[in-house]
Fold this sequence. Notes:
- This protein is α/β, with parallel strands linked by helices.
- The chain has one domain (4-224): Rossmann fold.
- The protein has 9 helices and 11 strands.
- The chain has helices at 12-15, 36-51, 64-73, 79-84, 93-96, 102-114, 126-131, 136-152, 174-178, and strands at residues 4-5, 20-21, 25-30, 54-59, 88-91, 118-124, 156-162, 181-190, 193-203, 212-218, 221-224.
- It has a 9-stranded mixed β-sheet with strand order 5-4-6-7-3-8-9-10-11, with helices on both faces. Strands 1-2 form a two-stranded antiparallel sheet.
- The longest helix is centred in the middle third of the chain and has 17 residues, at 136-152.
- Mean pLDDT is 88; it is low at 234-238.
Amino acid sequence: MIELTKTGIDGLDSILNGGIVKNSTTLVSGNPGAGKTIFGLQFIYNGVDQFDEKGIFLSFEENQEDLREAAESIGLDRWAEYVDSDQIRIYDKRELLSDNEFSTSLDLILDDCKDSEFERVVLDSLAMFELFFDDEKERRTYLLKFTDILKENGLTTLMTNEQGAVFPKSDIGLENYLTDGNIYLLQTPTESGVNRYVWVAKMRKQKIDTDIFPIEIEQGGIKVHKNASAFSMMNEDEYPL
Ligand SMILES: Nc1ncnc2c1ncn2[C@@H]1O[C@H](COP(=O)(O)OP(=O)(O)OP(=O)(O)O)[C@@H](O)[C@H]1O
Ligand SMILES: [Mg+2]
């Protein structure tokens, strides 16, 4: 039996046929404003709020206050309370990039990850995380080490990733192969605003619904509509997220 970790996001768990495979690492890709951080906030918040699972949020982009404000703006009202009671542990960029060597900060976090108290991790974002490595080899080695440690310790992880196109012209990054799941958040401009979509492109070990579904970001966060969209990716290699 494959164990599943529910995101608790309306409509998403059913597309995932029950949830994200427990103990896996899923890449959440999309362009700026697509909703990646909100997805991460909901994953961690719902873990505590609905499933009694503690979470770690590694934020290379926003600081503690930004995250709290973002969470509260979509109605995750008990965010601050869960942070205060250490059910949600946040490492924001100030700590991650403090006087310490970056590797020292990371070792500290990895120690937390080894602590079986936590079950969910969000790394927001992989692009920023990778900026701290000077050379490609070191970057790959650390990414492998990191995903291994998360796996060995039973954590279910989301890594957000800025990706400008679903099928980029340049090489598809290592992270796409390293991770067990791949979820895209897409947004397209329309005359009246933007249309948002979610596409679960990959989830190892799990039968998934690979249709593209419309989503909205509103009070309560991301909501997935049940009817698959008549969405087509005609120009696959150029299609922007
Ligand atoms: N309280 C809210 N109500 C409605 N929509 C919101 C709310 N908060 C955020 N949004 C929408 O969600 C978008 C931002 O989502 P989010 O910060 O998760 O994007 P992101 O993919 O993480 O972007 P980036 O790559 O810049 O980090 C905003 O552009 C806004 O349109
Ligand atoms: Mg973000």
